[in-house]
Write a structure and sequence with these properties.
Blueprint lengths: L11 H34 L5 H32 L2 H20 L4 H4 L2 H31 L5 H29 L2 H6 L4 H17 L6 H4 L8 H8 L1 H32 L4 H26 L4 H23 L4 H28 L6 H18 L1 H11 L5 H20 L2 E3 L17 E3 L4
Antiparallel strand pairs: 1-2
Helix pairs in contact: 1-2, 1-3, 1-5, 1-6, 1-8, 1-11, 2-3, 2-5, 2-15, 2-16, 3-5, 3-8, 5-6, 5-15, 6-12, 6-14, 11-12, 11-14, 11-15, 11-16, 11-17, 12-14, 13-14, 13-17, 16-17
Length: 446
């Protein structure tokens, strides 16, 4: 057994900040690519196709990262369950950051011909590998260090990092859109956000360099020899339910933050700058509310809040589509805001709830695999499906409301089959963090 006493207790604020920065970089990379796919990558890398087909191919290249993420979760989950949570944070960040910067340096189709889109797909796949370990590593290190009755609050910091990364990505995009002409943006401006990822990666590595290992990991007597096999043998149903549960979050988030850009600018003729500003305002509001909901959630059952979030999403999708289709910035803002606020109860507790479902020996692999398979179900095809459905609609794209409502019902059903977890009934006074119970579970009702 590792000697936990030899590990200096870290500052929770430093741990939370390091986790926040990492997930901020994760979503920064994803949003920069998704935004570029919606606005410019189609004509630059797929110019031989029609504008619609080029945009769909650009979205498809974005979806390749989601396909790579489960593989990344297996690789980094193995490292996290065998070597520790901390190495996952460093390695995944290196890989993601390097691939993102490389995309910004990539020649276009006009320079390299068909080789350019092939390299774009390869780099996007590498990004996905890195992203496959980022969320689980950041969340687990925070959750496993956090005081038992403040676990949701501290684990909401990585979730807030998603909002921060989105804002950073769109501040850069908004600044470029406002100051550059379309020709300048197409020539070189689109590359700047990818290059900026190098600076963010350096900051993240600096913050993570001196973090202490998770006490829960250090208390494990016998590590799983092949964590993936243990997960597939003993937790396969849990992984599938986790993936289905989280799918709606990916689907709604990418609809609001990615498809809305393409739909608003191409179909409705709304200024690209106006659309970006509306979506940024939505994310600011949600990010500000996340820690407040998390603070309250530390006193509540986790699954119940997730079920409430899925219900709210299902009820709001048709009003959201109606408001978005008006093309009026204020109404589009309200439609998107309602969608993201509906997700907030689930969003605020997910980082605590998902790790609580898995045993410590396979927690990194199980949580990462479930989370990233949720990304495959909810995120891979959503931009393509929503774009195609919108193009086939003569007026208001109600079919998108049908699709997203179906995703919400899928996630509701999966959450209903998962076990409930609750905060401990009383603080584990006198126990070191590694010996404090991570959760109090009861089976879902049959």
């Amino acid at each position: 057994m590792h000697d936990v006493r030899a590990v200096r207790a870290p500052s929770m604020l430093r741990l939370a900040a390091a986790s926040l920065v990492g997930t901020a970089i994760e979503i920064y990379d994803s949003i920069v690519y998704g935004t570029a796919a919606a606005l410019i990558l189609g004509p630059l890398f797929f110019p031989t196709f029609s504008p619609l087909t080029g945009t769909l191919l650009a979205f498809a290249s974005a979806g390749i990262a989601f396909l790579a993420r489960p593989l990344g979760s297996v690789v980094f989950g193995h490292i996290g369950d065998r070597r520790g949570r901390r190495p996952v944070l460093v390695a995944s960040l290196w890989l993601t950051g390097a691939a993102t910067v490389a995309v910004g340096c990539l020649p276009t189709y006009a320079t390299m011909g068909a080789t350019a889109p092939v390299l774009l797909l390869v780099l996007r796949f590498v990004q996905g590998l890195g992203l496959g370990g980022e969320w689980s590593g950041a969340v687990l290190l925070t959750v496993e260090h956090a005081p038992a009755r403040r676990r949701v609050l501290w684990s909401s910091f990585p979730q807030m990092g998603l909002a921060l990364g989105f804002l950073l990505a769109n501040v850069v995009m908004l600044g470029l859109s406002a100051t550059l002409s379309d020709a300048q943006f197409a020539a070189w401006g689109w590359r700047v956000p990818f290059w900026a990822a190098g600076v963010l990666t350096a900051v993240g590595l600096w913050l993570r360099g001196s973090l202490a290992e998770s006490p829960h990991f250090l208390e494990i007597d016998h590590h799983a020899r092949v964590p993936l096999l243990d997960v597939l043998r003993g937790h396969w149903r849990l992984v599938l339910l986790t993936a289905g549960s989280l799918a709606v979050g990916f689907a709604v988030a990418y609809t609001v933050t990615t498809w809305t850009l393409a739909y608003g600018t191409v179909r409705l003729g709304v200024s690209r700058t106006v659309i970006l500003a509306c979506v940024m305002a939505v994310v600011v509001v949600q990010g500000a509310l996340t820690p407040l909901v998390a603070h309250l959630a530390d006193r509540c059952a986790r699954r119940s809040l997730c079920l409430a979030g899925c219900t709210a999403v299902a009820l709001w999708m048709f009003p959201m589509v109606a408001l978005l289709s008006t093309g009026r910035p204020l109404l589009m803002f309200l439609g998107s805001l309602g969608a993201m606020l509906s997700l907030t109860p689930m969003f605020a507790v997910t980082a605590a709830y998902v790790p609580e479902l898995y045993d410590a020996r396979v927690r990194c692999t199980g949580a990462a695999l479930g989370y990233n398979l949720g990304g495959v179900v909810g995120g891979t095809l959503t931009p393509i499906i929503t774009t195609t459905l919108a193009e086939r609609s003569s007026s208001t794209p109600w079919s998108i409301g049908v699709y997203l409502t179906a995703m919400a019902l899928l996630s509701f059903g999966c959450f209903a089959l998962l076990p409930e977890t609750r905060p401990p009934a009383a603080p584990s006074a006198g126990l070191p963090p590694a010996q404090a119970p991570l959760h109090s579970r009861r089976a879902a009702p049959s």
